[in-house]
Design a protein that fits this description.
Helix content is 46%, strand content 4%. A hairpin with a 2-residue loop joins strand 1 and strand 2.
Amino acid sequence: MISDDDMKRLFKLARIEPSEEDLKNFPEEIGSIIDYVGQLKEVEGKGSDTELILSEKDAELRPDKEMIPSSSDADALINEFPEKVGRLLKSKKVFEG
């Protein structure tokens, strides 16, 4: 079972402001997720022939670099967007509340 402090830390790291209902339901939900991961580990350890092993030397990562779109790319994107006010783009509601 997850402690209240750990739960609050997870919400803080995820930048989520939980409701009272979230705080009440979260321990049970995270517990079921952890149980499921445990089941996956059991299956993985039983001779699964689809193992993926990566090490740092095997992984080829792209270098981090800042990508700044040209003004013509930005204008093309803005022109294709269905709803806008000036250069502000309107999207569907993502979060409730």
